[in-house]
Amino acid sequence: MTMTDVFGREACDLGEFRALVEVEGERPPHARHVRQRVPVYDAASLAGLVGDRTSRRVIRDELAGVLGTGAGIFVLAGAFEHAVVDRATAVFEAMIAQQHEEGRAVGDHYAKPGANDRVWNAIEKLALRDPDVFVDYYANDMVALAAESWLGPGYQISSQINVVNPGGEAQQPHRDFHLGFMTDDEAADFPAHAHRLSPMLTLQGAVAHCDMPVESGPTMYLPYSQRYELGYLAWRRPDFVAYFDEHRTQLPVHKGDVVVFNPALFHAAGSNVTSDVKRMANLLQISSPMGRAMETMDRITMSRTVYPVLRQRRRGMSERAVANVVVAAADGYAFPTNLDNDPPLDGLTPPSHAAIMTDALERDLEPAEFDGLVAALVERRRSA
């Protein structure tokens, strides 16, 4: 069945999911080997194969096939030199120490706030704090090769440092961008083709900043699960969670390795049962350059100007009509934001601009009060 036949949570079928997931792991032509159905590439060997445009395209096409219809995940073994990783680790550890000194609550998407250490917007902070390290780190051609394979040129990188400390508990399996940050009801409102498109706009990766034996809880994955088109409506279902727990893969990785995966792949960070391994990874969310509007709009000023009129007139309008105006005037997506100042403490995302406007209308706030809320949002989103 495809999503064009029936689209909705009622159509989620574990049997169909299993038929897509329970396949033999294929070895792509240039992979060193396949481990637990995950292709593992030797970064040094790949570097010798992508010297010209034609050969680079061949490798890119292979990696895109793995991400799309293949396992949905691959490992680039030895992608980073240890010295480069260690220098960046030292900078990130200094950032974490500063956060502890300041007593900041940084939140988390899928773990209890405070259980792990997070550095939001680590890419910008690294660039500003130590540009020499930044240059060495992001000159890495394996990251570029992976990003180009899925998104083409002009991609945009964001990153967060995640340290799962000893005793850190496993996450629930989930999908990510963009529908993965929504509730089931919110995701169900998007048409079938949006569920297919969403994973194509983002690539996820994790750079290992230390050796990660299985005991330290490296991320668990379910190869081939990105192929299930209803996955954004299924990943919270108990039967799918139970299936993930029974069949997931968990590969040990080494410092300098990069794990690259489709955001629609079912995945979850594992439990760190060690007493001494602080499992640090640089989590990469790499975005398509095409997911942007054509024109620059000042939606903050738009919403402030429209709000008093909409507040006055909403009594004579339908709820849907009011919502339509809010969508036209305010930003309906919670990102991008400054997650240090605007963390997801009460859900998967902080409240969006449109959500704040809707709440203000429902509470019948005075325009001056709404202006204050919007001004606070602007300040929270301001880059460090």
SSE blueprint:
Layout (H helix, E strand, L loop, with lengths): L13 H8 L11 E3 L2 E5 H5 L5 H16 L4 E5 L4 H21 L14 E3 L2 H8 L1 H8 L2 H11 L4 E9 L19 H5 L3 H6 L4 E7 L11 E2 L9 H4 L3 H10 L10 E4 L5 E2 L10 E9 L11 H15 L5 H11 L23 H10 L4 H15 L3
Parallel strand pairs: 2-3
Antiparallel strand pairs: 1-2, 3-8, 4-5, 5-10, 6-8, 6-10, 7-9
Helix pairs in contact: 3-7, 4-6, 5-6, 12-13, 12-15, 14-15
Question: pLDDT below 50 for ≥5 consecutive residues: which ranges?
Answer: none
Largest sheet: 8 strands, mixed
Shape: globular
CATH superfamily of the largest domain: q2cbj1_9rhob like domain
Percent of residues in beta strands: 5-15%
Strand order of the largest sheet: 1-2-3-8-6-10-5-4
SS-based class: alpha+beta
Counting H and I runs of at least 4 residues, what is the number of helices? 15
The CATH class assignment of the largest domain is Mainly Beta
Specify the CATH architecture of the largest domain: Sandwich
Q: Provide the CATH topology of the largest domain.
A: Jelly Rolls
The percent of residues in helical segments reads 25-40%
* Integer average pLDDT: 91
User: What's the assembly state of these chains?
Assistant: single chain
| Rg | 22 Å
Helix and strand sequence? HEEHHEHEHHHEHHEEHHEEEHHHH
Tally of extended strands? 10
How many structural domains are formed by the residues?
2
Termini separation comes to: 47 Å
